[in-house]
Amino acid sequence: MKKSSNILLFDLDGTITKPRGAIDQHVVNILLDVLTKTKWRIGIVTGSNLDYVLEQLGEWASCLAAAGLELYPCNGTLPVEISGDKWVSGPAREIRFVIGTDVYLKVITMLHEEQIRIMKENPDIPLTGCFVDYRQTTINWCPIGRSAKALDRQYWEKIDSERLIRPVTLEKIKEKLEEIAPNRLTAVLGGETSFDIYPVGWDKTYVLNVVNAENIWFVGDRCRGFGNDRALYDALQPKRRSFETTGPEETILIIQNILQLNQ
């Protein structure tokens, strides 16, 4: 792994890939050029677990690992090291043990109650499977199910933007989390379809505690409102080292601009 003091961190969904999509070869080539032809390090910080990250990196995973791409799944709370041409995860601090079994069960029960409420109020939403995903350090809740296909996700995003289902629900969740465990848990919008629930302080700023670098830059797509990139974006904004993107194409331009300005 490079020991450079400069690292570029990227969100995954909506930043270097389309939401829940596979990484494009053009983006891979750009990342490999930076990793192999410059002194810069590159890392991905995402709320997803390692399995989801590897799924999206697909056939390019081994060459990216061999080139030194750093992974920070679960907002950096899941330790991952490079071993040859693959990544190996270490033991994670599990949220259910950190907050306690009683609190954890209350949170899961509350999410199921909210799921039923959304289904009753919006009987036309697409429903698949895997609604609550336990990620050791994060609880991810997707009202249409993590098994949703592209068309399901697109329809959900459309009606969510029209009815503000997630923003309204997020406020309800945060209020209920405060009742269940005061000052201990928080929630944000996860990507385009879901919610992330985790202990206070376990947002993406957590990665700042585990990345060994003097100068950290960050690029994400959910940097406003209740987006899960906002905390890290805001933390690095005073040094003008955080950037909002609309997708992989703009991310490539941002990479090029950062490198040109910091030669």
Explain what this protein looks like in three dimensions.
The radius of gyration is 18 Å and the shape is globular. The longest helix has 21 residues. Helix content is 40%, strand content 18%. It has 263 residues and is of the alpha/beta class. The chain has 2 domains: 147 residues, 3-Layer(aba) Sandwich (Rossmann fold); 105 residues, Hypothetical Protein, Haloacid Dehalogenase-like Hydrolase, Chain: A, domain 2 (2-Layer Sandwich). Strand 8 and strand 9 form a beta hairpin.
**How far is it from the N-terminal to the C-terminal residue, by CA?**
21 Å
Class per helix and strand makeup: alpha/beta
The CATH architecture classification of the largest domain is 3-Layer(aba) Sandwich
Strand content: 15-25%
What's the total count of β strands?
Answer: 11
Instruction: Please compute the radius of gyration using only Cα atoms.
Output: 18 Å
Number of domains: 2
Report the mean per-residue pLDDT as an integer: 93
CATH class of the largest domain: Alpha Beta
Classify the oligomer.
single chain
CATH homologous superfamily heading of the largest domain: HAD superfamily/HAD-like
**Count, helices:** 9
Strand order, sheet with most strands: 3-2-1-10-11
Which residue ranges are poorly predicted, with pLDDT under 50 across at least 5 consecutive positions?
none
- Major beta-sheet overview: 5 strands, parallel
The ordered string of helix (H) and strand (E) elements is EHEHHEEEHHEEHHEEEHEH
Helical content stands at: 25-40%
Broad shape = globular
